């Protein structure tokens, strides 16, 4: 590939292959793992500490989803880090001849681990609009976490894998302490992908965004107030409140009457919200304060009945029903 003009670098190859269904690793990325033969006791000095973690406890550093278990890696781990020993590998031939059962098991586990590291599992492409879940776990050997996202077919697929080995001090912790550490480490690793709700909440409370964002729903309209005369008791508002705890006289409801001009409130107790009880309270109100020209109420059955309409005609006042 020709170098880009004006730049001092050259694009050699694409490390990962993007497919329609997800992300696959290319062969060049895993070729080293397949060709690696454990023959040099100083191999970890050559590859470095990060390479050692990639081949033993941190398989995610190769961007590969490795489905390994404790049984598949424990013989290799125990040999790589012997108790009280250095981090080196034993000298093993490529084809075992007359070796002990332990060496044969070790070689088999090593080849199985290399095969899984070099396999081509699929990772889904991260989407900022999809729901995310972070799964984590821990043991005395290490920590692990998987970032999942919900796909269009309602299935959950992995986006990224993470794992790391415990330190000698962490390996002595209680299980619940290890689980808490796994949550902390996993959130530190994937926190940038789990901030959508916080970002949405921050934007929703931004005063400038609220001020300049287009309004949704029905457009604002004028408030049509009920015209009132500049006289007390010309317009009154009535409503029932209850039921409440029964009193000694058997009353369980309250009839509220509010004067629209002075905001004067009169309260009557009644046994029920019937038309007869309402008429009884209103007659007492009229005797004490005078008859109104208009009575405003809700659409309760006691105010919409024919009996109450006859009562309004007899007392000569109109009825306005609110929605």
UniProtKB/TrEMBL annotation:
- Name of the protein described by the UniProt record: Pro-Pol polyprotein
Q: Please name the SMART domains in this protein's record.
A: SAP (SM00513)
| Stretches the record annotates as Disordered | 55-97
A GO biological process of this protein is: DNA integration
Q: Which Pfam families match?
A: RT_RNaseH_2, rve, SAP
Q: Which Gene3D superfamilies match?
A: 3.10.20.370, Ribonuclease H-like superfamily/Ribonuclease H (3.30.420.10), SAP domain (1.10.720.30)
**Sequence ranges assigned to domain Integrase catalytic in this UniProt record:** 228-323
Query: Is DNA-binding there in the keyword field?
Result: no
**Molecular function (Gene Ontology), one example:** RNA-directed DNA polymerase activity
Instruction: Identify the keywords attached in UniProt to this record, alphabetized.
Output: Endonuclease, Hydrolase, Multifunctional enzyme, Nuclease, Nucleotidyltransferase, RNA-directed DNA polymerase, Transferase
What InterPro entries has UniProt attached to this entry?
Answer: DNA/RNA_pol_sf, Integrase_cat-core, Retrovirus_Pol_polyprotein, RNaseH-like_sf, RNaseH_sf, RT_RNaseH_2, SAP_dom, SAP_dom_sf
What's in the GO CC field?
Answer: cytoplasm; DNA polymerase complex
Q: Is GTP-binding among the key words of this record? A: no
In this chain the SAP domain maps to 6-40
Which spans does this entry mark as compositional bias, Polar residues? 55-77
């Amino acid at each position: 590939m020709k170098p880009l003009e004006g730049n001092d670098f050259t694009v050699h190859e694409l490390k990962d292959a993007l497919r329609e269904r997800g992300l696959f690793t290319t062969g060049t990325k895993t070729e080293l793992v397949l060709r690696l033969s454990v023959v040099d006791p100083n191999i970890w000095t050559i590859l470095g500490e990060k390479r050692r973690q990639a081949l033993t406890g941190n398989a995610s550093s190769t961007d590969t989803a490795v489905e390994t278990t404790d049984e598949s890696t424990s013989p290799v781990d125990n040999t790589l880090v012997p108790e009280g020993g250095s981090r080196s590998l034993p000298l093993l031939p490529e084809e075992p001849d007359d070796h002990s059962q332990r060496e044969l098991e070790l070689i088999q586990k090593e080849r199985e681990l290399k095969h899984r590291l070099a396999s081509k599992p699929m990772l889904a492409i991260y989407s900022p609009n999809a729901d995310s879940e972070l799964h984590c776990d821990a043991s005395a050997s290490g920590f692990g976490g998987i970032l999942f996202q919900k796909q269009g077919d309602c299935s959950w697929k992995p986006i990224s894998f993470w794992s790391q080995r415990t330190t000698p001090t962490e390996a002595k912790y209680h299980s619940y302490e290890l689980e808490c550490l796994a949550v902390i480490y996993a959130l530190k690793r994937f926190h940038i992908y789990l901030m959508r709700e916080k970002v949405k909440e921050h934007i929703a409370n931004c005063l400038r965004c609220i001020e300049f964002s287009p309004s949704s729903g029905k457009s604002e309209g004028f408030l049509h107030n009920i015209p009132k005369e500049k006289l007390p008791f010309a317009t009154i508002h009535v409503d029932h409140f209850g039921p409440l705890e029964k009193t000694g006289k058997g009353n369980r409801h309250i009839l509220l009457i509010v004067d629209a001009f002075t905001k004067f409130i009169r309260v009557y107790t009644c046994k029920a919200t019937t038309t007869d009880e309402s008429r009884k309270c209103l007659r007492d109100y009229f005797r004490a304060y005078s008859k109104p020209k208009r009575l405003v109420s809700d659409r309760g059955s006691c105010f919409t009945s024919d009996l109450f309409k006859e009562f309004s005609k007899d007392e000569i006042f109109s009825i306005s029903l609110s929605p």
